[in-house]
Amino acid sequence: MQWRSNSLRKIFRALLLALLAGCGGGGGGGSSQSQPSSQPSPGAPTPPVTGIAGLPINGARAIATFESIGLYWTPPSDPGSAGCSVIFRKSGDASFRPGLNMWYDPSNNECRGSLVLLDPGTAYEVQIGMPGQSPTAGFSVTTWNENFPVAQTITLPAGTLAQPLVITQGGSPNGYVVYQADPAGTTIDVQNAYRNNVTVSAPYVIVRGLTLKGAQVDAIDLLNGSHDVVIEGNDISGWGRFRSTGSWDYGVDYDAGVRCERVATLERVVVQRNKIHDPRYGANSWDSAHPAGPQGMSFNYCGGNNVIRYNEVTSSDYRHFYNDGIGGSDNYTTAGFPNYDSDVYGNIVQGVMDDGLEIEGGDGR
Length: 365
Prior knowledge:
Elements: H1 8-16, E1 18-20, E2 35-37, E3 61-64, E4 69-73, E5 85-90, E6 97-98, E7 103-105, E8 110-115, E9 123-129, E10 137-142, E11 150-155, E12 159-161, E13 165-167, E14 176-180, E15 186-189, E16 198-200, E17 205-208, E18 211-213, E19 220-222, E20 229-232, E21 235-237, E22 242-245, E23 249-251, E24 256-261, E25 269-272, E26 275-277, E27 295-300, E28 307-309, E29 312-314, E30 326-329, E31 342-345, E32 348-349
Parallel strand pairs: 11-14, 12-15, 13-16, 14-17, 15-18, 16-19, 17-20, 18-21, 19-24, 20-25, 21-26, 24-27, 25-28, 26-29, 27-30, 28-31, 29-32
Antiparallel strand pairs: 1-31, 2-11, 3-4, 4-8, 5-6, 5-9, 7-8, 9-10, 22-23
């Protein structure tokens, strides 16, 4: 990890960063009353990894997020405990700087590592090699742009809707479809009559600015067919099923404000700046057994390359505390949450019986 001097903001962000990168350190769908309106695309898709002048890619791979790049490279021989060396720079800068050496995994003869605390929407040149030798692999890769291209915007009606939003229409790499609240406010309160407030089974979708209440199970459910999804600026509360009564009413384990369940193709999901609070029921405490109950977010056996940042997961009293604030299955596996090349940072998590962040999965990819 490269620490930048003279920047308290960057240092604070680093303290909150939980990076699971290569080395495991790392218009349909809306209400029938919705009126679609077209907006121009503000940007182009992120460019792929490309070689740099004078140095071949040589089998290296890179997977970016907004502020991180996961690195993969198969060296010609075992580099030993030093691992593989890496240097990088912003495209156009005069000099390279060293990154943390990549860890070598002898099980598949691969070096894996990460570059973190990068700038969004920025091209970086990276060179990798054996320790103490000149680099033999090089490439350029661009971090994600925070301005997503938009092909269509669907604004939901103002006021309170009693039926869920079922999203089956998505966009493409050239333009997302945005489902957003009316400027006067849009609430979807299903009053425990429907399993979800919102389901997404399409790619390149943005769900923005909604107030979601009263789901039977999970407020937002990411289903087969969804990937490249942005969930931002929503207020989510009052979801979940009853499990049993002990010291208070306990909810079903893993019922969540945002949920993915066994969708291995779910990748490049951004969950940011949401307020997730006060599930219908709470989790039991350690006084009776291992905590079990609702979560702010549950991602179980889903894909990676996701970013979860700047969310607030809170509860107003202990009877509505969470099992884990943000978590999923399974720990210490190659496919556990948050899986490969994912970032979790800048979140506020309060009111849990077990872990604020349970993010010990994806260790072995």
